[in-house]
Amino acid sequence: MTAPWSAGEEQQLLPVARSSDVVQVRQMIRTLAQQCRLSLVDQTKFITAASELARNTLVYGGGGTVRAGAVEKGVRRGVAAVFADEGPGIADVELAMTDGWTSGGGLGLGLSGTRRLVDEFDLVTEVGAGTTVTIIKWAR
Ligand SMILES: Nc1ncnc2c1ncn2[C@@H]1O[C@H](COP(=O)(O)OP(=O)(O)OP(=O)(O)O)[C@@H](O)[C@H]1O
Ligand SMILES: [Mg+2]
User: Fewer beta carbons under 10 A from the terminal one: N or C of the chain?
Assistant: First the structure.
């Protein structure tokens, strides 16, 4: 997936460098999800997905950024978020996406769970260069 936004659409950019940043990310995502008129259930799903990705950015990516904003595709409207880091990357994406697989002490449910919680999920990674995960939830 290339950047989900077209020219002229505004996004917000936040750092993900420490634990307290995850709280800010959740707040930003919550506000956007409300503004984009996601249902309460979908707001919660998107916030949960964003929290998991922010935590991965922090823990495995060594920190990075999240860019988020309203998104439009044809008649659909929704909210998109892009998590980017310049960490070690993921050598085996299929393995990393497997339920229960963790390289650390996690539950290994972050990536696989996130994919199920959103409408669009895209992971681009390169060993030694970093990881970028894009998620979108459409309003319905
Ligand atoms: N941004 C990232 N950079 C490098 N590796 C990552 C990144 N995100 C995930 N990974 C790798 O993918 C694995 C699976 O991630 P996932 O979020 O599914 O599980 P977890 O973080 O280990 O546990 P949980 O999220 O359930 O607490 C991680 O253990 C890590 O090895
Ligand atoms: Mg995780």
Answer: C
